Amino acid sequence: MNSAKRKIVIDTGTLVSATLRQGTIPNRAYLKAMTGYQVCVSDHTLDELERVLRREKFDRYLPLPLRLEFLRTYQTRTTRHEVTLQVTDCRDPKDNPFLALALTVQAEIILTSDPDLYSLNPYRGVQILKPAEFLEIL
C-alpha cells in the first residue's frame, strides 16, 4: 500500500453498517476511505470486526459467508500495524484501541458513528468524523 496516502482508521460500527447496507452513507464513506486513504488496522480491531460480523442477528441483512467475504477483502486491502500505545481516554473502553491505533499510525481521521468516540473530536490532532461529515469534506 502507498505509504504516502493519508491514513484513516474506521471503527467497527461503521464497517458493519457499510457491509450490511449497500449505498448507505456509511457504505459510501467506507468506499471513499478505501480508495482515497491508507486504511489502518490492528490485530485487535480486526478481531473485533470478525466477532461482530459473526453475530447471528445480522443474518437477516446479509448471509454469514458474504460478511466473512467482506472481512477477507478488508484484511487484504488494509495495512496492519502493531499497536504498542495504551489509551484510556474514551468513556467506552472498547473504543480505546481505535484511538491507540490512530495515534500509533499518525492517522488523520477516525471514521465513526459511535458517540463515545465522536465526543472526543478532535483527539490529539486526529479528526473524528461521522460518515456524512467525511463525505462532505471530500
Give the topology.
Blueprint: E1 7-10, H1 12-20, H2 25-36, E2 38-41, H3 43-53, H4 64-77, E3 79-80, H5 96-105, E4 109-111, H6 115-118, E5 127-129, H7 131-137
Parallel strand pairs: 1-2, 1-4, 2-3, 4-5
Helix pairs in contact: 1-2, 2-7, 3-4
How would you describe this protein?
This protein has a five-stranded parallel β-sheet with strand order 3-2-1-4-5, sandwiched between helices. The mean pLDDT is 95. The chain has seven helices and five strands. The radius of gyration is 14 Å and the shape is globular. It starts with 6 loop residues before the first strand and ends with a helix. By secondary structure, the protein is of the alpha/beta class. The protein has one domain (7-137): 3-Layer(aba) Sandwich (Rossmann fold), CATH 3.40.50. It has helices spanning 12-20, 25-36, 43-53, 64-77, 96-105, 115-118, 131-137; strands at residues 7-10, 38-41, 79-80, 109-111, 127-129.
